[in-house]
Amino acid sequence: MDVENKLKSRESFWHTTFVVALFVITTILIYLALPGEARFKYEFQKGRPWMHETLIAPFDFAILKSDDELKTERDSVLNAQLPYFTYQDSIGQEQVGKLASQIDNLGQSPDAKSKTLSDADIKQQLITLYQEVFKRGILEQSISDYPSLKGKSDLMFVEDHVGRKVPLSSIFSLKSAYNYLSSGQQQLAEKYPSWQPLLVKIHPEVFLHPNLVFDEKTTDFERQKLLDNISTSRGMVQEGERIVSQGDLITPDTYRILESLQKAYENRLGNTTEYYGVLAGKGMFIILLVLVLFLFVFNIRRELLNSKRDIAFTLLMMVVMIYFCRLVVSTNPQLVYLIPFTVLALTIRTFLDARLAIFVNTIAALIVGFMVPNGYEFVLLQILAGTVAVISQDKLLRRGQLVITSVFILLTYVFAFIGISLIQEGNWEAIEWMQLRWFVGNAVLTLITYLLVYIFEKSFGFVSDVTLIELSYSNQNLLRKLAEEAPGTFQHSLQVANLAEDAITKLGGNPLLVRTGAMYHDIGKTKAPHFFAENQAKGINPHEEMSLEESAQVIMSHVTDGVTLAKKYKIPEMIIDFIRTHHGSTKTGYFYMMSKNENPEQNIDASKFTYPGPVPSTRETAVVMLADSIEAASRSLKDINAESLSDLIDKIFKSKIKDGQLDYAPLTFQDITLLKQIFLEKLLTIYHVRMEYPEEKKVKKVKRKTIRLERRKND
What we know:
There is one protein chain. This protein is mainly alpha-helical. The chain has helices at about 1-35, 65-80, 90-105, 120-135, 175-190, 195-200, 205, 215-230, 250-270, 275-300, 310-330, 340-350, 355-370, 375-390, 400-425, 435-445, 450-460, 465-470, 475-485, 485-505, 510-520, 550-570, 575-580, 590-600, 620-635, 640-660, 670-685, 695-715; strands spanning about 55, 60-65, 85, 140, 155-160, 160-165, 170-175, 210-215, 235, 240-245. The strands form 4 sheets. A 4-stranded mixed beta sheet has the order 6-5-3-8. It has a two-stranded antiparallel sheet with strand order 1-10. It has a two-stranded antiparallel ribbon with strand order 2-9. Helix 15 (about 400-425) runs antiparallel to helix 16 (about 435-445), helix 21 crosses helix 23 and helix 21 packs across helix 25.
């Protein structure tokens, strides 16, 4: 006994050490996730009065332009910026050279007799025509096909590393250059008829080749240079200048000045010796929040601390969400509302419980609120959305439920955002309606919860309600095997499932888990179904040819056989617990008593007639154990009535309590009383037993008499 106590004490010590280490590591990781800059100590909202003391500028700082102002300036610069095209003069020279060679070759043909004395001048005119086209520049495609030229009237020629502005109207495409040259050659043919036979043999498309190439590198470089020259500020505030007085309304201009001071303050303080004070404050804040989370779990959900998996999963999910938010904010703060933050609450709700999900969501939102712009607004929106998500997602039983939950989340975000905006701005026109697109994306991304649930089930060994529904389906492979090979046991399992599900629903627990566990609790009987009474034909009992010990071993083996079979079919461990515990450490009563009666003078080894256990440690497994015993025993009653069923239930409960089978199950005396009542009512319904209540009959007669008297009075 001392050895067993020492082992339990050592196990408890290491478990406690593991849990404490988890919370310490979580604290450190969250601390590292928070930015090192100081936080502005004043909260303010546009359109609301300044609630603090009069604010005087503590130092000189620039008034930063708003994002809209900077965007307008950037758009203006980008619209005015011209794209750069490299002019390749060598291409024109090469093509004109080929043209001159062809003209000379054609001059040696019989048609050359028709030439005039001005042949050299005509040749030069034709070459000059082609030189003009190449000099003006030829694009491979039409101007409308170049996105960089959209809305432009000019472009920049880059020739010998020197840029010059050229109107688009003077530029050719291959098609317009061809038309221009064809027209020019036609005019020469009309002016010099003797050259016409030779000119028709000169095809412009043979010599045309684009000599303007879009210079993306130079264009981007010049664009960035222009953007870098845009000033991010529009004025200065001098040290000692009054910014806003207490009670003053925060106008858009004042709001811009306050935001500028906030950024300057945080950057300035982050570079001073007070930075270490900021780190200390951040540490105190994180420690307090993690401590509050621990106290909540310790006082409200203490059973969570008993499971390494559950507490590790909860803290891991919170840390991952915080780091994901940190990554998004550091990349682009505008995307903060695109983060599907409610996935944290939905996932914890699916595997654990609603209160824990809401609390963890709140703690995570408070932490992330220190990273994002408009922290108060972010925290408020996430707490509301997370709470609505958990309430609307009572049970994740169907895919459609998650879609409905996403719609509720979207509506919560939209209504809350519009409400906050109206409080700040005071009118509908000032609301930034484009911000709503982030909430739509957020709601869509929430659907990823369904995929995450599947991944976490496989990774952490959780069992979701969706999986429980799939497992409890009677056509599932293992249950179909039970129905075909041990039909009596299958019917018994159905009855136990109905009893236990009804009981746990009224008592408080997971009905789906209980039903599924009850359906599988006797699955081991499929190995030798004919050894169990419910599957035996009349007059055939294989136990008659076996010793009592052998019979007991066969009967008890259905527990270990069930565990082996369930593992083979990859049934979750949570369901296998029902197989292990549905007999606990009780004895095979019939064979044990028969052995004692047949050998009164011998000491019977009770271990040979005792199930391997363990005893139930949850409400769900305890209820299935009781329902299994009561359902099986009720079949052996000769006279089934309310009294006999009530006596049977009392007897079984007393036996289980006496044998210590319910010592580790979280059931109170009130729970046991309620369970007795539930089992009795359910069995009376199953066996169609009508209970007599003389007192109630008397009451009914009195009531009817009273009703008749009342009717007479009314008549």
